[in-house]
Each structure stands twice: as C-alpha cells, then as structure tokens.
Amino acid sequence: MSDVDDQAVPIDQDEARSMLPFLLAAGILVLVVIGIVIATLMSPAEKNLTDSGQLAVAARNFIQSRSDGGALDPAVVCKGFDDNRSPLKTAVEGGPKLDIVGLADSKIDGDRATAAVTFRADSHDTTATWAFTRADGNWLVCNS
Length: 144
Prior knowledge:
This protein has helices at 3-6, 20-42, 51-66, 89-94, and strands at 98-109, 112-121, 124-135, 138-142. The longest helix is centred in the first third of the chain and has 23 residues, at 20-42. Strand 3 (124-135) and strand 4 (138-142) form a beta hairpin. It is elongated, with a radius of gyration of 30 Å. It is built from 4 helices and 4 strands, in the order ααααββββ. It has a 4-stranded antiparallel beta sheet.
C-alpha cells in the first residue's frame, strides 16, 4: 500500500447543520395540502359540472331509483310528478335492470330543460325526450 492510502483524512464535524430548510419545506407542503382540502370542501367536483352534465346526473339518479322496479324517490323528481306519465313507465312495468346510456341535445331555458335521454332495459336501448326543472340548484326529472 502507498502512504496516501494509510493516512487518515480528518473530518470536520464541528459545523452545526440547520433544520430550517427541512422545516420550511414541510410547512409549505402542509399549507398546500390544507389549501387543497379547503378548495375541495368549498367546491365539490359534482358542482363543477356543466348544465348538460348536471342533467345527465339527474337522469342517472332517476333511472337508478327506478331500476329493478324500485319505488320512486321523490328527491329526484319535480313537485307534482305523475308516475303514470313517467318517461320510464313502460320499462319499469317489466321490472328490468335499467341503465343510462347517454344524454344528448340538451336545451336549457332558465330553470327548465329538455334532453334526449337514452336508457337500456333488458339489452334494448330506448331514446326519449325528457323534461327537467331546476329546483334549489338541482335538476329534477319532470313530466313536461
């Protein structure tokens, strides 16, 4: 071995290292997480939908409440809804599982809207024009 390899290299460990950069980074990370949580609580994703997206949610909620011959949920229909004139009347009578396929051609006029809703019952797709009304910021399915 050479003389260079045998010599000990002194290490200066007297220098105190600061935790300040780590603490600042951790503090910034905590602030970002708190900001994301507050933003999520103030504006949930469901409220960030377009009117057409909100109509699709209303149609889906209505179809899910009636799927498998289920009872009508009054929270998804407008006041005075007549189940005998329901857009799903013929499909619900058979009691099949219902699924929404799509919503198109939505026309919104203030708090009233219409849209072509396509739903599936027993592997058969049906499209019909549905009426909607906005009440308390939510779209509800109506007869007309």
